[in-house]
Amino acid sequence: MPRLVDLPVRRLPPSGGRPGALLVGRRRMMVRRLLERWRESGEWWEGEGEREVERLLLADGAVVEISAAVDASGGVVLEGGWRLVARFD
Amino acid sequence: MGTGGGTCQPSCALPLLHVHSHYSLREGVDSPQEIVRVAAAAGYGTVALTDRSSLSGGVRFVRAAQAAGLSPVLGTEVHTAGEEPDRLILLADGEEGYRNLSRLLTAAYALGGRHDPRVTPDLVAAHRRGVFALLGTRRSLAARALLGGQLERARAHVAPYAEIFGPEGAALVLERAYLPGEPRLEAGIDALARTFGLPVVAAPPVRHARREDMWLCDLLACVRSGRSLDAPSPLRPLNREGYILPREEFARRYADRPDALQGAAFLGERLRPPYRVPSPRLRAPSIRLPAGESAPEALRAAVREGVARRYGPHPPAGLWDRLEHELGVILDLGYADYFLLVMDVVAFARRSGIRVAGRGSAADSAVAYALGITEVDAFARGLLFERFLSRERGERPDIDLDFDARQRDRVAAYVRERYGDEHVAAVGTFATYRIRSAVRELGEALGFGEGELDRLAKSIPDVAADAILPEWDRYPELRGREEERRRYALLWRAAAALAGAPRLPSTHLGGLVIADEPVAGIAPLFPAANGGITMALDKDDVEDMGLIKLDLLSLRALSALDRTVRALAPGAEGRVVPDDPATYARIRRGETIGVFQLESPAQRALQARLGAERLEDLVHSVALIRPGPIQGNMVDPYVRRRRGEEAVAYLHPQLEPILAKTYGVVLFQEQVIEIAVRVAGFAPGEADRLRRVMTHGRSRAEMAAIGEEFVARARGRGMEEATARAIFDMLAGYASYGFSEAHAAAFGQTAYVTAFLLEHEPAASFAALLSEQPMGYYPPWVLANEAKRRGLAFLPPDVNRSEVACTVEEGRIRLGLALVAGVGEDRARRIVERRPPGGYASLADVRVVGGVDRASLEQLVRAGALDALGGSRRRMLAECALPLHQMRLGGGAWEREQEEDFSEAERRQMEVEVLGMEWRPSAWGPLRPALRRAGYTSSAELAAVPTGARVRCVGWPFRPHRPPTRSGRPAAFFSLVDEGGLVDCVCFAPAYRAYGALLFRRPLPPLEVEGRVEVRGEGREVIVDRVRPWPGALASPAGGSHFSASPRGRSR
Description:
A: 89 residues, mainly beta, globular, B: 1052 residues, 7-stranded mixed β-sheet
């Protein structure tokens, strides 16, 4: 069962041979790999914008989903706006 | 074919291989032209249009792509038969592939029907040549299996098509549209590619050209799946990625898959366009001729015979010069076969006793007249052939034939039999979104209730779907409804976005295409609602495909004419004399209800002023009452000049011979052409092209350019610039209301014959008009009212006396059984044919012997058609509900139980509801003395009221409408119907603003108006300044039945 959360998260890209990571508050979660990525338009009729969602496999075996808004042109995910939205243990 | 190998650089020519336009009904958002525009701007060189089970957007797509320098590929997304339909994209490589796709879709329609075309692997295999298949799209069964982790199952779904097309003719697609499961899907696609040795191509799907239009795509998906926005559906897009990606974004998105990019690029380069637009080849059928005779020879011979028949041994001087000129053009353009074909169809109708009349610009042709195709002597009238056909214009000739509506299908059947079923199809058309249809469809998806939407749709003007918001303040019935403007804001926005988009494939009313090859290879054919076969291209597209179109139109006026004549003694039609004084006297009084083309309120008002006394006046009338002359302020000058109240003046003496017959007013399209020829030296064909640009182009730049050319050429011929400009301005002012003189002449002749018969044989004429409903301007209740006003009496429908249609019985009109709502012609015919010699004796008799179902029997009881059997209607209706064995049988032995029947008012109301008219004397009649005392003026009394006098009138409102006006300001026109006829009313701007909301609400109660009388010639209208529902406070001698006398009746 997914656990729904809504926490700000920072994505730390892989560098120097180290895997990428997620930073939630002070907690660092190592990312093993990106499972998939998709976009959702949301309830556009209620004024919701589009979001990009990433599903990540963490080093501890958990799966999380993080989400961020997509700008109107669709080209850019608004960095700094990522949030942890679900965790599958 | 294969998709090649190697690597693809970001600059390589990437194609769009999977694009849906709005011809993927309720799925795609944009027109093919818009797709081409956006794709070209995004830098693509090749685009494949792959609409769902449709090639209908093809012609427009190819034309737009040619103009934009894109390479167009046509394809289609087909669905397979079965519980769980599979989907695959089939792309045509060149003409052979296109023809096979067309035949495949034709077979798909035959298998699945008009609304659900389906293919089978066998059908696909039979049409595989020149076709390339894209497999594994996200909505395919294989993709669904892969997303579910079922690789073996996916293999099973792909296997049949991999085998049919092989690695040279198929590829698997990578769609990459930011959808969940894409990595898993791609891994599966790669596995399938390895299994079957198929290449992989990058093919992002497109359903809306621009990213921001996803909302409309989503809304349409909701409509298609019958869900509201709050409900999920697999058809709905998850995100906005189904748009035309900028080319760089396309390359970036697939940067890790150069094989897929390369495969797509290679495919885009390999696939060839399906055809060119317009078609360089005419696909006209060859007429069957005796051995050794050519079509040109046969046409000449037929013209010679026709001239002898029309003119006798001494044709008028100059006729043959004219005919030779026309024949030269016809033969040069290769249309000899076409003229012979049309002549053959008309000849079939004539020898079969089917009434036929050629209409439209074909009547500009003296050859058409000689061949018997038209009944207008183009030579005698001096009509201009180039309005119909010219070398310069190079368009297909367009001959429209009107037939008695009841017999039109017989003529179409003859054409199919003569030229072969496979070579003939009806022309298609698409119903498009207008505001009301958009409100009903989209509103449900937006979550509004059916009842609310029905009320909303009925209360708004039926305008173009994108006109409602810009014109909101223009319509009084909308003004003040700010809450609705806000509440339905998204609905209005969606409706505007869909304006003009196709909504429903349908069949053109009369068009047939006849080709020199089986038509299924030219465009897909679908089974029409009427059981025929329709080509899924509209009338403009079939011409662009090089097809010859023949318009066989149903004209109920001809049916009514035929009924009238057949009801009279043999030879009655021959007694129609020209220039009959009594006929013209009635026309001059504006008493033209029922007269073909001359019956609308505007026509009646015109006739009351015009003083018509010859056929030419009627011909001009047909052309005068059109939006253009009214907006162009041409009507009044014409009438004043016709009546000698204003001098006829010309801008230049050269115009006099052209405009003298229309009193100096430009009334006909032919006159525009003649002026351009005479004044500016245009060739006739050039001049017609100018006319068309003036009529259809209408952009300022275009008009200015044409104007300069006209002026320059006129000056070159010695005319002063100011005069040339004034003449051009006159033509430009006229341009939007062009009407062909030939067309007006053809209609004018029919109008005169119907007027003559209405004058001298009114009972037979009104009986015929009522039998042919719906037709003309007025519904049955207004026609019946007019008949009564003219002193005719009606007899009710009667199962033992009525025929199927209305008949004349001792001078009175006996209503036909088919007039009863819900009974219809077939049941009515059965009742008449099975009628025992002594008549039906009982309700059960009618039901059993007459073969009438219970619902129809009830309708007949309500109509009073069983009153003569002697039972009460209440009792009979009760018996209708009983099982057959409980109905009382035999001998009309109704028990005369003391059960009270319906009141007179109730019986009258029942009749009105099922007949759509009131055959008894009007309910207003008994009220009239009281109304007179209360100060109301009747329609009959209005005739004696002087101009300027104030009156109050009351009656049932009929057809409020807002035609274009001279000033451009909105005005409403309507009539009030009382026992003596019609009171024509006009609400100009102030009154319209005040009362528009009342006039256009539904249902309409009886209305009371107050206003000033305006006498116009022999007619009168009331310029209304006050409207209100009739208060009904008057004590009604009919016991309150004045409200129940509503002739609104049923909807037919």
